[in-house]
Amino acid sequence: MIMNQFATRSRVLLGASLGVAWLLWAALPLPAAERGVSPSDATALRRAVNTGPRVQLPDPPQQPAPAPAEPRATAAPAPAKPAAASKAYTLSPGDRIELKIFQHPDMASSERISEEGELTLPLIGRVHLGGLTEEQAKRLVHELYEKDYFVNPQISLSVADKGKWRFTVSGQVARAGTYEANNGESLDLIEAITRAGDFTGKGRKTDVQIIRRDLPPIYRNVEEMMRGKEPPFEIKPGDQIFVRERII
Q: Are 150 and 133 in contact (CB under 8 A)?
């Protein structure tokens, strides 16, 4: 019985192997003769395929070249601003003025402008020149002499020596007293107090008093000025600065 089963299995395996072999043989390509094509025709067909006209594919469309970028306009540099003209000096009390008139040496003079801004001229007397520039004063003197004394006089007028102006600082400062500054010199409140040795430990910086001629008392906060929170305060000739005592 065992032998019969073994023989049966062998026959089944042999049949399966033959079936697989037949399927593989059927899948193989047939020779040209078996497909109804002679070997010479097959060779000619291969030559026709290899030597036939080749189809040339069109070139891909070319993208147009980008237009050249327009050059950017460069802003022209702004013209340099002309330098501000320096402020002309104005005649002040204490300035010594030299006056000469061509071909009239006896009219030469050298006088100082008074505290009221007046200058004494030969033949004419006192004339107010304070606050005028040299050119303005020269025109005024020319008109005065031409009006009553000379025909088209050639006037020479100049500042031979600049005078000084004074201010006082008192109260809670290290060195109270009267101080001088040159005519034309700009001086602010902080600089004036610094010349007086600065505040004492008791000095009140928040409301410094300035007495100016013909004006009510002026009060300024020097502490805020030092911090840059208030603008400087310019001192004028004759100003009296008073620093009060700080309330503790």
A: no
